[in-house]
Amino acid sequence: YTHLVYYNRYRHVQEAYRQLGRALGVEAEVGQPLAPRLTQEECDFADKLLEHWQVGNRHLLLVNVNAGDLCLERRWEPWKFARVMEVFAAREDVVVVMTGSPPEQAYTESVRQLVDEALRDRVVNSAGTMSFGQCLALLARSGALLTNDSGPLHLAASFGVSTVALWGPGLPATYQPLVGNHRA
User: Fold this and answer.
1) How far is CA 85 from the centre of its chain?
2) Rounded to an integer, what distance in angstroms lies between the CA atom of residue 95 and that of residue 92?
3) Using CA atoms, how far apart are residues 41 and 57, in angstroms rounded to an integer?
């Protein structure tokens, strides 16, 4: 509360953080965000899951239908997620895996249940089945993440994973990853 920091809601939020850093005498570097550190055990766990799901040379598409309890309005409509997952589940070269935390498991499963019955078994609901670090290791190994505007978007970007994020009510220009292969 001793230093004024300019905030422009039409600029990326990272600029507000850079302004705060400058007020504290720190100049931040802009670029690829630092990825969380993973343990060997977390990486081994993710590798075993990929083997179990027989990913092999196929593409791993992670899908996050959640947005956290603080901003449920960020969720894209469940039936729309189901339709997109059907398109990818029908492909032989793609493995579709839904992610989420333990409290999100039931909602994630309710969205999976909207997938056409003929394709539903080709969509894995992994929500609530692994630790945070294990989920990060899986995310780091994925080919792409389809997600709402949420934390997993930024974690995926930190690993250099391609992302497609569905936005609303937030503005992509304010919060989207600044580097990497990202589509809003």
Assistant:
1) 15
2) 8
3) 23
Phi, psi dihedrals of residue 2, rounded to the nearest 5°: -100, -15
pLDDT digit string, tens, across residues 12-57: 888 888 888 888 888 877 777 889 999 999 999 999 999 999 999 9
The CA distance from 11 to 39, in Å, is 36
Partners of residue 10 on adjacent β-strands: none
Amino acid at 15: E
Q: Is the peptide bond before 177 cis (omega within 30 degrees of 0)?
A: no
Q: Is the pLDDT of residue 111 over 90?
A: yes
Residue 138: closest CA among 78, 61, 24: 61
- What distance, in Å, lies between the first and last C-alpha atoms of the chain? 34
Give all strands (DSSP E) within the chain, no chain letters. Answer: 59-64, 94-98, 123-125, 144-148, 162-166, 182-183
What are the residues facing 64 on neighbouring strands? Answer: 147
